[in-house]
Amino acid sequence: MSAISRDDVAHLAELAHIAMSDEELERMAGELDSIVDAIASVSEVAGENIPATSHPIPLQNVFRDDVVGQTLTQEEALQNAPDAQDGRFKVPAILDED
Amino acid sequence: MSQIITLSAAELAAALRAGEVTSVEAVQAHLDRIAAVDDAESGVHAFLHINAEEALAVASEVDAIRAAGGAEAQALHPLAGVPIAVKDLIVTKGQPTTAGSAMLKGWMSPYDATVIEKIRAAKLPILGKTNLDEFAQGSSTEHSAYGNTRNPWDLNRIPGGSGGGSAAAVAAFEAPLALGTDTGGSIRQPGAVTGTVGAKPTYGAVSRYGAIAMASSLDQIGPVTRTVLDSALLQELIGGHDPKDSTSLPEPVPALSDAARLGAAGDLTGVRVGVIDELGGEGYEEGVKARFEESLELLKARGAEIVTVSCPHFKYALSAYYLIMPSEMSSNLAKFDGVRYGQRVLPESGPVTIERVMGATRAAGFGDEVKRRIILGTYALSAGYYDAYYGSAQKVRTLIQRDFEAAFQSADVLVSPTSPTVAFELGAKIDDPLAMYLNDIATIPANLAGVPGISVPGGLSEGLPVGIQFLAPAHEDARMYRVAAALEAALEQQWGHPLLAEAQDLESAVAAAKEGKN
């Protein structure tokens, strides 16, 4: 049985904000299925008493003084924006019309 | 081919100090070589951007300081005036940074990465930006949105990846030094298949600030060079604590070049070299295994004690990596949404809302492999699967760290082939993601555990380079450089020249390839 269906990929693509055609969804479902099959073995050895490692070399309490450091100017921050107005990033409508 | 470009960085630095050559001559010689061999259609195509004007300006500044003499000349960094190429994942002011992605076409960073600030302060002219798999995701450079790089040993073969551009540039004598990034082998595997040296420092030994993040707990910037000493010198320059990277190690840079020089002097008496039982055998080409065995004999002849170590959980490393890496990168790449930088693409039909603009932007801006990994990461992190996949992978990470700890009880450094195969033909694995992922089977454990690794040329198999990988405990980069330099010296003594002296006449090969296309 396939672990990842076309509908699953459609849902994941929505979560990840990537528009996909039907053809892409089908292809991706097949590819991901074989990849997930190949990597599912991690659960075989992950016993309950084994702690998780999120970071290779743990460092603790990495703080800096609470002072303003180097920052970008407004102009620098906006120089690569696809659209800007009045010193701000300009975006399309945030809410659907309906 | 100009003599200047065949010098190592250390040799070129000495020639510059002695006044035998100027930095402007050195930069120009490399620019000429790039013009001769780097054609995008038929040549190596290591570079995405050439920074000639600025590189020559920095070079002439160094030459002027040297000519004037005095305290300022004395204070010049030992590598001042030696040109360098930079992987296009590392941000640079004044030059575009694309990450090999259509998403960032033409993007100009408003700031420099910390490693770039250090390179500028030391006055190394930056020749340009090198090609890579999109957002450093791949093992062949075929996933670049700007066309693949070609292997200087055989223009029909891959240069490795993701940092194929940096490795190929150095192998093709287009630059003596380059910067790479290594998340699962992206410095070491290209080094192996191009007959060059690539080092992944201990995680945190070099600041990641300004390297466009792929998987933050795995990414590491490191040197790409033709000799072990050059890698040590470059890591000394770019390493050290950086307050802008909270994961950077708060400790001074060890004396890496001294360690490389000590190693090259030859004696390895008392050094225990551990052969990792799990990284070899099935899946490794015969020619790779043969060069590996010969390298062990040479290390033994120099006094090293060869022991066998077992790392039983390494067989799960690839699986853990392909859960942790996509999970982290799916999160890191969420920022490419068509709002603050990069491309913005409007949906072809229907309402133009921000959600739909993001969907269209990311559909157009990302290539297939990046999309595949984003979806895989989103899956591994999603409710109901998190514990089984991402959680389990993090536990495997602990088991791999324990394997390393145990192995380093009986060995000072570990050794394995860098890559199971030599460079394969362009297109051979592009439609089979799993086959492509297996290229990194020997390099991934180091990233999961944060330990340093280096690949050095180990000879040829069917005319193509084989890489030998050394791994050392975290913070013990010096040990890795010492043993790697010892093997390099022993092999070059046997061959009578560096491995790259056996590579094809590239200018003729590129001319023939151009002819063939016309």
Automatic annotation (TrEMBL), chain A:
One of its GO terms (molecular function) is asparaginyl-tRNA synthase (glutamine-hydrolyzing) activity. Keywords: ATP-binding, Ligase, Nucleotide-binding, Protein biosynthesis, Transferase. GO terms for biological process: glutaminyl-tRNAGln biosynthesis via transamidation; regulation of translational fidelity; translation. It catalyses: L-glutamyl-tRNA(Gln) + L-glutamine + ATP + H2O = L-glutaminyl-tRNA(Gln) + L-glutamate + ADP + phosphate + H(+); L-aspartyl-tRNA(Asn) + L-glutamine + ATP + H2O = L-asparaginyl-tRNA(Asn) + L-glutamate + ADP + phosphate + 2 H(+). Allows the formation of correctly charged Asn-tRNA(Asn) or Gln-tRNA(Gln) through the transamidation of misacylated Asp-tRNA(Asn) or Glu-tRNA(Gln) in organisms which lack either or both of asparaginyl-tRNA or glutaminyl-tRNA synthetases. The reaction takes place in the presence of glutamine and ATP through an activated phospho-Asp-tRNA(Asn) or phospho-Glu-tRNA(Gln). Belongs to the GatC family. This is Aspartyl/glutamyl-tRNA(Asn/Gln) amidotransferase subunit C.
Automatic annotation (TrEMBL), chain B:
One of its GO terms (cellular component) is glutamyl-tRNA(Gln) amidotransferase complex. It comes from the Bacteria. The active site is at residues 87, 162, 186. GO terms for biological process: translation. Keywords: ATP-binding, Ligase, Nucleotide-binding, Protein biosynthesis, Transferase. InterPro entries: Amidase, Amidase_CS, Amidase_dom, AS_sf, GatA. Its EC number is 6.3.5.7. It is an enzyme of class 6 (ligase). Residues 25-479 form the Amidase domain. It catalyses: L-glutamyl-tRNA(Gln) + L-glutamine + ATP + H2O = L-glutaminyl-tRNA(Gln) + L-glutamate + ADP + phosphate + H(+). GO terms for molecular function: ATP binding; glutaminyl-tRNA synthase (glutamine-hydrolyzing) activity; transferase activity. Allows the formation of correctly charged Gln-tRNA(Gln) through the transamidation of misacylated Glu-tRNA(Gln) in organisms which lack glutaminyl-tRNA synthetase. The reaction takes place in the presence of glutamine and ATP through an activated gamma-phospho-Glu-tRNA(Gln). Heterotrimer of A, B and C subunits. Belongs to the amidase family. GatA subfamily. This is Glutamyl-tRNA(Gln) amidotransferase subunit A. The gene is gatA.
